[in-house]
Amino acid sequence: MEQRTDVLVLGGAGVDTIVHVPELPLPYADSYMIRPGIETRAGQSGDFVAVGLHCLGLRTHHLDMVGDDHEGELVRALHRDRGIPLTEMPAPGGTKRAVNLVGPDGRRLSLYDADRARDSDRFDEPTVRALASAARHAHVVITQPCGAALPVLREAGVSLSTDLHDWDGANPYHESFALQADIVFLSSAALADPERTMRDITARGRARIVVATAGAEGAYLLYDGELTHTPAVTPHAPVVDSNGAGDAFASGFLFGRLRGEHPRRAALYGAVAGAYACTVPSTRTDAIGREDLLAQVAQVASPASEAV
């Protein structure tokens, strides 16, 4: 089949309610006056990756289960306004939603509504197969319907990436994603020994590339058995919110790889995209554009990374 899509994004469509708090952790109090206010907008992990890839000029298609509710309308509007194709299937429990508490330093605490997911949630297999067959690559979010779709994606022959977020290296739910993807992203935040976890993923799974992001410390790349470090990139504007930085990193990295860049160079693409995301207020769903990304990568490219 003709490849009409560069990246098929599965899962992670939803809505966040943003609450700015005076500090994290938030001390107990009967009430707080919130400024600059409380705002609800579409944009969870899959949405952010799709927007990031689209802003970088990649043909992007998003597939997820979306509810017949107000939150679903916000998700549809986001994709419609951005011009990103969305294939949706009914979500019996409703559209995924969360509350993000955002501190003055940009850190966040996310509270996800677990009642929105059902163990029986599934994508229509013929639809997954058709969309995957038309794509160069598929990025799989670790939300409920996506795990069951992994065998279908593998059968379609499309390369896979996934983001395990703050996996502790032990939770079995994440393992099927970690071991079936060709490129694995994860945060080092909950890992006692990030290198050991990264090497375990490559030893037991399919991945040749594992990237562990470490916030202000940059990111660690394991490729062909060699662990290298990519320093964090200094943003060109003040840091206001870390929400979506990991998704932006993944988008930038995938953009680099689909351009044929070496994984070390792709990690620099990711670092630049992630730094930009930290300058975007959590109430917006913006991402760096192709020209800006390439210009900033050229500016900071030497040295792109260093051996650990």
Structure in words:
The strands form 2 sheets. The chain has a 10-stranded mixed beta sheet, sandwiched between helices. It has a 4-stranded mixed beta sheet with strand order 3-2-6-7. The protein has a single domain (5-13, 43-94, 118-307), classed as UDP-N-acetylmuramoyl-L-alanine:D-glutamate ligase (3-Layer(aba) Sandwich), CATH 3.40.1190.20. The protein is built from 9 helices and 14 strands. It has 308 residues and is α/β, with parallel strands linked by helices. Helices cover 34% and strands 24% of the residues. Helix 1 packs across helix 7 (245-258) and helix 3 (125-133) crosses helix 4. Strand 10, helix 6 (194-204) and strand 11 (209-213) form a beta-alpha-beta unit. This is Adenosine kinase. Keywords: Kinase, Transferase. It holds the Pfam family PfkB.
